[in-house]
Write a structure and sequence with these properties.
Length: 657
């Protein structure tokens, strides 16, 4: 069936050029840019239509109009990306971009890596982040290690925080909402620009009684709800020394407390506390009459997680697990504008040097199976990229980076891409390819479980090579130049040296590989100024390189149908239908209704969620909104045994004065 679907999609792709999704990746020289200008994989602000990559941008307006309260909700709508969450807010949510593993996505906050070094795989929990202080989410799909280094195998996600308005001295803003499951959201902030200074400060809290994450189909489930309480605080201060020279500091603190369930039975006294703080100071200056921009950034992030499991009716055991990971980094980045060369113009070269130091301290479980890690490592990297525009219609980019991680051989990654504008056919054609790598985590290298398991300090990085080809075309009709847009992207990659257990399960080795291919199809229809509809369909074939079996939690098909309806001025209604096809589950992670586990993989069933958001401005400064989630009360399990939260409804107001 998977091959039939993939073949069908390829035929459709060849018959009609499809919509290439828009997005932006971050750069070492972060900048405030116009909505139609983004920072490409070469680190240079570039018009959106000229980016040689599959990118999706979810801006502040889209966040509010679609009622995205947390990061997992927003990312669920991105083509080529699958969210697998084990419960509600705060509980573990993994991202699989184009069939790659959950540890193969690099996450940035204003350009600073925030993957958790203390996580066993060095991954990121996408269930933790609320979006009150986020201005936009930029998703780059495809290998991106040539600029970002380790973990950018499947792609890069950059969370860009809110910024001060340049034309207001004081701008208060906020939100207050409540509804199902005793949910309450409250947040407020103030931002502005006074002379050469600009500032922003915000604080928000989300609390909910939550729902039972353990699937109701289990015979002995307790039906215990898993609550969530999360608080974010953000502060930014900037100073424009002279035109073209700026210094900026940012501090962000986030702490979540949540109930945790396990399958196949609830765990009523299992709780988690997850805290992260990050800070950065950066400065940039424009030299040589604007032809050279150089910048320096110092950043630090710290993740601290604790899990407490107290005695209850299910177990008399008591555990308290502790994880702390710290990353300190220094980045120097540059952009130099190049002169025109005959038919080539708008050239630029970007280059920089990066250094990062990571430390992890963790202990989990009880003797004799206590897991411990106490280790550190350093990474030094240099990168360079160049781009030019030929004949005013062909944009070509290329980049290379070398990373050296302490105690093992370094890795050189590269990426090339091109975009061809064909205005005669209202079409844009693009292609790109490159390599990427994922360094082993500190747990994989130095972790220990009692006397039964030891990490392998000699592990090699996981590596990949991949490419994509796509096109989009605007179709005029009824007097509208962009009545419809159709497009496609075909992608393929091979990942080697994947890290897995050895035959005795007492250490880790580089033994596995994966073959991945797929198609992203998209169609936008704009029949009237008040109506826009979007459809995306991703078909993925991700298989084990040795056995040929489908990889766990990679669904055959993911379909998103959404619309923006404005029947009267100001009233915006945004329905969403999210369909996720069946996917295999891992062995021992598949459960029968009686709670017993299967020793062979089973399929997770397909599921459909229906969401609806509506908003209306009561005054120019105050907007009322309604958010409905899972309105059909689907019992779908995105991860075997963990059920999607039930039907919820939230009403509230947001304001900007």
């Amino acid at each position: 069936m998977r091959r039939i679907l993939l073949s069908t999609a390829a035929i459709l792709a060849s018959a009609m050029p499809v919509l290439a999704q828009t997005a932006a990746s971050p750069s070492a020289l972060e900048a405030i840019v116009l909505p139609d200008t983004i920072v490409t994989a070469t680190g240079l602000p570039t018009p959106l239509a000229r980016v040689p990559a599959s990118i999706t941008v979810i801006d502040r307006r889209a966040i509010e109009e679609n009622g995205f309260a947390n990061l997992a909700e927003a990312l669920a709508t991105v083509p080529g990306l699958r969210i697998a969450q084990s419960g509600g807010p705060g509980q573990q949510a993994s991202v699989f971009i184009r069939g790659n593993s959950s540890r193969s996505t690099l996450v940035l906050m204003d350009g600073v890596p925030v993957n958790d070094p203390s996580d066993a795989n060095g991954a990121f929990n996408f269930g933790n982040e609320t979006l009150f202080d986020i201005e936009r989410i930029e998703v780059l799909r495809g290998p991106a290690s040539s600029l970002y280094g380790s973990a950018a195998v499947g792609g890069v996600i950059n969370l860009v925080t809110r910024r001060a308005p340049p034309d207001r001295q004081v701008m208060p803003y906020g939100e207050l909402a409540g509804g199902s499951q005793r949910t309450l959201r409250a947040g407020g902030g103030v931002a502005g620009t006074i002379g050469a200074f600009d500032y922003l400060a915000s604080l928000n809290n989300v609390s909910t009684q939550g729902s039972n994450a353990t699937a109701s189909r289990f015979w002995r489930t307790l039906g215990e709800a898993d609550g969530f309480n999360g608080t974010n605080a953000t502060a930014r201060l900037g100073y424009t020394v002279t035109p073209g020279t700026r210094i900026e500091g940012l501090v962000r603190w986030r702490e979540n407390r949540t109930g945790v369930d396990s399958v196949p039975r609830d765990d009523p006294n299992f709780t988690a506390d997850d805290r992260r703080w990050m800070g950065q100071i950066r400065g940039e200056s424009t030299l040589l009459d604007g032809r050279w921009t150089t910048g320096l950034r110092l950043a630090v992030t710290q993740d601290r997680r604790t899990y407490t499991n107290l005695p209850d009716i299910l177990s008399t055991a008591r555990t308290q697990d502790y994880y702390r990971g710290t990353r300190q980094s220094v980045d120097w980045g540059n952009v130099v504008r190049l002169p025109s060369l005959g038919v080539a113009d708008e050239g630029a070269i970007t280059f920089g040097v990066n250094y990062a130091h990571e430390e992890v301290t963790s202990f989990a479980g009880n003797a004799p199976f206590r897991t411990t890690v106490n280790a550190k490592q350093d990474t030094t990297a240099g990168h360079v990229a160049i781009q030019y525009r030929f004949w005013d219609r062909l944009d070509v980019t290329g980049g290379v980076r070398y990373d050296n991680v302490s105690d093992f051989t370094g890795y050189t990654s590269w990426r090339v891409g091109a975009v061809l504008a064909v205005p005669e056919a209202n079409m844009r054609i693009r292609a790109s390819g490159g390599t990427a790598f994922n360094a082993p985590s500190l747990y994989q290298r130095f972790g220990a479980i009692g006397t039964t398991f030891r990490g392998n300090p000699n592990l090699r990085p996981e590596t990949s090579i991949g490419y994509e080809f796509g096109a989009e075309m605007d179709i005029p009709a009824f007097g509208q130049p962009r009545f419809s847009t159709i497009g496609f992207t075909f992608f393929q990659s091979r990942v080697t040296d994947l890290i897995n257990f050895n035959a005795r399960f007492n250490s880790l080795v580089n033994v596995a590989s994966a073959n991945i291919k797929g198609v992203e199809l998209a169609w936008s229809l704009r029949p009237a100024p008040w109506l826009t509809t979007d459809l995306s369909w991703t078909i993925t074939d991700a298989t084990d390189g040795q056995t040929g079996l489908a990889l766990p939690r990679r669904p055959e098909s993911v379909v998103t149908i959404s619309a923006r309806i404005e029947p009267i001025r100001g009233l915006v209604i945004t329905p969403q239908i999210l369909f996720t096809g069946r996917s295999p589950e891992g062995a021992f992670a598949s459960y029968r209704d009686n709670g017993t586990s299967l020793t062979f993989p089973a399929n997770n069933k397909s599921g459909t969620l229906f969401n609806l958001t509506a908003s209306y401005p009561i005054t120019p400064q105050i907007t009322a909104f309604f958010e409905g989630r899972n309105l059909t009360d689907s019992k779908w399990e995105p991860v075997n045994g963990f059920q999607t939260p039930g039907r919820t409804a939230i009403i509230g107001t947001r304001f900007v004065f």
